[in-house]
Batch of 2 targets.
Target 1
Amino acid sequence: MSKQGTSLTLVDLSADTPCCPPLAQRRVPAETAAVLAPAFKALGDPVRLQLMSMIASAEGGEACVCDLTPAFDLTGPTISHHLKTLREAGLVDAERRGTWVYYRARLGILGQLAALLAVEPVLVA
């Protein structure tokens, strides 16, 4: 199986509306699972989950790599690798400004992931 990025357009990851009903309500179609799985996989690493949180909650909606790197006891290249993984999974967009790169969360895909995992609260009598 190739590690080359294949562009699947079966689910609009930038849409503000859910891709499908929550998985607790209905089976996720194979095509949808194939599109969303890389994003879940990318978030499965603790460092990437923290980076995603830092970027998504950053003031102004974006975070500079210069502010992200010092938060970890990791080398710059390791942080860059994790950010590249988030970018390739479609979770963040990156923009170079001079020598720094700024990251912005892609809220559409985060909404898709959240909607897929949504569950009704269980009321206990």
Target 2
Amino acid sequence: MMMWWWILIPVLLVMGVFLYNGRNRQNTEKIENPMDILDNRFAKGDISKEEYKEQKRTLNTKN
């Protein structure tokens, strides 16, 4: 009976670590650059073609 505890405890610890790491990976968000966000908004129809061109021109200008 005592032998099972020596096997069960490490197995539970390893499973806990894998579950914790998997949950952390799911919570990380992909960071998009401004052009990707602008392209997605235009593709979804959130902004018009004129707004898209104006914002794209603004993003492409270097200060």
